[in-house]
């Protein structure tokens, strides 16, 4: 073999080894990315579940507030009715 062929052979072997090493690294990186995405998906699912519970709690509080407002309106109406009743009794 002359020196040019030997040099090309060495370069080709070194490049092949580097490409194999690079392929293995890319595979490992993609596997880590997959694990990270799975964990992130779990976290997003938990956040979604928590936000649903908060939404339901706020809806319950809102309905309690509406109920309390209705009770207050009924009390005010009863007071007005008593005032009118007293007024008509005096007349």
Structure description:
This protein is mostly helical and 91 residues long. It is built from 1 helix and no strands.
Brief synopsis:
By secondary structure, this protein is mainly α. Helix content is 97%, strand content 0%.
Gross geometry: rod-shaped
Low-confidence stretches: none
Structural class: mainly alpha
* Mean residue pLDDT: 86
User: What's the total helix number?
Assistant: 1
Q: What composes the largest sheet?
A: none
- Helix content class: over 70%
Q: What is the ordering of alpha helices and beta strands? A: H
Number of strands: 0
Radius of gyration: 39 Å
- Span between N and C termini? 131 Å
Beta-strand percentage range: under 5%
What is the element layout, followed by pairings?
Elements: H1 3-90
């Amino acid at each position: 073999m002359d020196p040019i062929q030997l040099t090309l052979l060495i370069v080709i072997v070194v490049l092949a080894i580097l490409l194999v090493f690079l392929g293995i690294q890319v595979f490992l990186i993609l596997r880590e990315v997959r694990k990270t995405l799975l964990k992130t998906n779990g976290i997003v699912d938990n956040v979604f579940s928590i936000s649903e519970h908060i939404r339901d709690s706020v809806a319950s509080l809102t309905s309690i507030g509406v109920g309390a407002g209705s009770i207050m309106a009924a009390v005010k109406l009863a007071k007005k009715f008593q005032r009118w009743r007293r007024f008509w009794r005096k007349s």
